[in-house]
Design a protein that fits this description.
Blueprint (H helix, E strand, L loop, with lengths): L1 E2 L8 E2 L12 H19 L5 H5 L3 H5 L6 H9 L3 H32 L6
Helix pairs in contact: 1-5
Protein name: LON peptidase substrate-binding domain-containing protein
Length: about 120
Amino acid sequence: MNRQDEFPYPAGTVELLVSADEDPDVEATERAQEAYAELVRQATEDDPDPERIAGMDAYAMAATVDFGLEAKQGLLELRSENARLRLITRLFLAATKRLDFIERAQARARSNGKVRFG
């Protein structure tokens, strides 16, 4: 992007980036969709609609989860849908593990008032 300083407001020229021309990785797609479905189940206790998930790309799935700015920026910078799918799969799995940890900690806290870490 080139800044255009002649305007009284922030401006620049934008170059649109095109995703890599590649064949879809069916395994990466399935893993991402499965990890997303599990995260949705655990976070909402609802079964997600498989047809809806099947129609979602990496951006659509990631848009429904708050990963933080760095993770979202990393996703935006990838030019390959297959690479984006691999990244969101890792992010979904990590989020699911965090939710599982939180649930176990809450259950322990309710049971005896003490939570032991480690």
